[in-house]
């Protein structure tokens, strides 16, 4: 008889996969999603006062962080990829905004307790080797009353939903093919089902999270009491 537990297996470190040419390719291919990052930043701006301290975990090329900085937030980004820290810094300078991008591990973030008003993480949660520890660290660096948004791919996303998501990235023909292949062969394999995400949130210091779904993804909203 197979006994099922709620504890996920520890995932391997994936940072090495997002260095050098891979990071540069991701930077180029993600530019088609800038309108999506604009919409996310505009949504945040409807309820988070300008001047608030925002941390983006795993910002990659930094496009969402840049949009948040344009709206008057004090933004910090932490990424385990050296290449992404360099690329994001260059993109921020090109956009005319100042963002503190640092290299670091979400499981051991180099920030004091109660440092940020809002933490956001997009498309990286599935890659964290220890997701509960990552959520605990997010909880630690949030000030009391602060909140977080963890957005990522749902394991149950269907082929039509993936096709629609990739079309919305406005990539060229070759990149569209490559991105669909990556979704189906790598990303879905690493992704969590929404019920698993709910269990992870319950095991963390947050104790509870509210999940909404849209398209291929989920948005886990968390609050530090």
Structure description:
This protein is 41% helix and 20% strand. Helix 6 (159-167) packs across helix 7. It has one domain: Rossmann fold (3-Layer(aba) Sandwich), CATH 3.40.50. A seven-stranded mixed β-sheet has the order 3-2-1-4-5-7-6, with helices on both faces. It is built from eight helices and seven strands; from the N terminus they run H-H-E-H-E-H-E-E-H-E-H-H-H-E-E. The protein has helices at residues 20-30, 34-45, 63-70, 82-95, 131-141, 159-167, 173-190, 194-203; strands at residues 53-57, 74-79, 100-103, 116-122, 142-153, 210-214, 217-223. Helix 4 links the parallel strand 2 and strand 3 (100-103). It has 225 residues and is α/β, with parallel strands linked by helices.
What topology does this entry show?
Blueprint: H1 20-30, H2 34-45, E1 53-57, H3 63-70, E2 74-79, H4 82-95, E3 100-103, E4 116-122, H5 131-141, E5 142-153, H6 159-167, H7 173-190, H8 194-203, E6 210-214, E7 217-223
Parallel strand pairs: 1-2, 1-4, 2-3, 4-5
Antiparallel strand pairs: 5-7, 6-7
Report the mean per-residue pLDDT as an integer. Answer: 86
Predict the CATH topology.
Rossmann fold
Described by the principal axes of the CA atoms, the overall outline is: globular
Task: List the helices and strands in order.
Answer: HHEHEHEEHEHHHEE
CATH class: Alpha Beta
How much is the radius of gyration in Å? 17 Å
How is the biggest beta sheet arranged? 7 strands, mixed
CATH architecture: 3-Layer(aba) Sandwich
Q: Hey, roughly how much beta strand do the residues contain?
A: 15-25%
The percentage helix is: 40-55%
Question: Strand pairing plus helix content: what structural class?
Answer: alpha/beta
């Amino acid at each position: 008889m197979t006994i099922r537990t709620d504890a996920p297996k520890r995932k391997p470190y994936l940072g090495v996969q997002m260095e050098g040419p891979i990071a540069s390719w991701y930077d180029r291919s993600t530019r088609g999603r800038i309108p999506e990052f604009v919409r996310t930043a505009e949504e945040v701006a409807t309820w988070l006062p300008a001047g608030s301290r925002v941390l983006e975990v795993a910002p990659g090329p930094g496009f969402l962080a840049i949009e948040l900085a344009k709206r008057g937030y004090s933004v910090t980004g932490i990424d385990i990829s050296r290449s992404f820290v360099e690329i994001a810094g260059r993109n921020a300078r090109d956009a005319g905004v100042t963002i503190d991008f640092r290299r670091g591990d979400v499981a051991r973030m180099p920030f004091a307790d109660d440092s940020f008003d809002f933490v956001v993480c997009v498309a990286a949660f599935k890659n964290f080797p220890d997701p509960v520890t990552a959520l605990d660290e997010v909880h630690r660096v949030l000030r009391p009353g602060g909140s977080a948004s963890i957005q990522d791919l749902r394991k149950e996303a269907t082929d039509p939903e993936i096709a629609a998501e990739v079309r919305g990235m406005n990539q060229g023909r070759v990149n569209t093919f490559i991105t669909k292949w990556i979704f189906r062969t790598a990303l879905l394999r690493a992704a969590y089902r929404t019920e698993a995400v709910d269990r992870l949130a319950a095991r963390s210091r947050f104790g509870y999270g509210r999940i909404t779904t849209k398209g291929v993804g989920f948005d886990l909203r968390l609050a530090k009491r």
